[in-house]
Amino acid sequence: MPINPSGEFSFDSRHVWKLATDRKMLDLNNRPQDFAHRMSKVTVGVCVKNCADLVGEAISSIVSQDFPHELIEVIFVDDGSEDNTLSIIQEYLPKIDMLVRIFHHEWKGLGLSRNVVVDNAQGEYIVWVDGDMRLSKDFVRRQVEYMEGNPATGIGKGKYSMSTQANLVSELENIEFASVNLRRERKAGATPLGTGGSIYRIKAIRQVGGFDEKITGSGEDQDIEHRISAVGWALDLTSAVFYETRRKTLRSLWNEYFWHGTGGSYLFEKNMKIVGPYKFWPPVMITIELLRVRMAYRATHRKLALLLPILYVFKRTAWLFGFVVGRLETKKTKKNAIDYINHVRTS
Length: 347
Hints:
By secondary structure, the chain is an alpha/beta fold. The chain has two domains: 1-246, Alpha-Beta Complex (Spore Coat Polysaccharide Biosynthesis Protein SpsA, Chain A), CATH 3.90.550; 249-347, no CATH class. The chain is built from twelve helices and ten strands. It has helices at residues 33-36, 55-63, 85-92, 110-120, 139-149, 168-186, 202-207, 220-230, 250-270, 272-275, 282-300, 308-346; strands at 8-9, 16-20, 42-48, 72-79, 99-105, 125-128, 133-135, 153-160, 198-201, 234-244. The chain starts with 7 loop residues before the first strand and ends with a helix.
């Protein structure tokens, strides 16, 4: 559907209000009365970019939830997709019997995109769903029930479950994430929770000022987890199950972890404790990965887990390259800013 000159999308579907490119929903002249005064219990936030191949499955799993649909709203934020992600979301709209709002903007990064959801959410909680995820049928219900029964919890992370993958690369990633899940269960705080598959209490998000919009790459989740925990909210694990489709090629895996590394460089600048640079000291890296191999084998009983150290070295190398590039860009930006200030002072 084309964008009109004012930069808005409009839909005729009875359950969709409007898709806009700004941070706030625009005034609506023809808002359906049955949705006008609806107050949702939970907001499903779907921040996506270039995931046309998978976003349909994510939407289908949202529609299949057994939590009352009249208490769910779905907010999509398309962060400048260059494929047909947005048009696929539009195609699914008639199938979604929930309140739906869609925002589209040129690439701004995850920090700002997640804040679009936070700023417009009506619910008490946000369930974050990535474009490559699929939710179990009772996922939202279990997440909400957990938060209702644990008022001191700011974030509740669901349980990653293994699913059939396409090839060796994606299957190794599948096993790796299964081991991370087991490690989280055995040692709280051992690894970041991440937004995908987590439920956030909106009160906690707003208490810490939302997501850091300067984070255009990854790391916005680690940053806000640290801040939410610092003001006294608990970070917990729940029994709600979700699945993910893992990367299929080494190139896409390299790009993903390079991107994580550039995000890590900003976090390092902001708060070194979040990144934990000691983890990259070779003896520590080796110890961590040996423990992961052991956990991965115990979780899956598959000898394929013995190949994880090779994949780990590959991903860590990509991360370090991204981190170095990010640090160089940060120093260059600082130098340009200092040069500009000195120029202004002397002119």
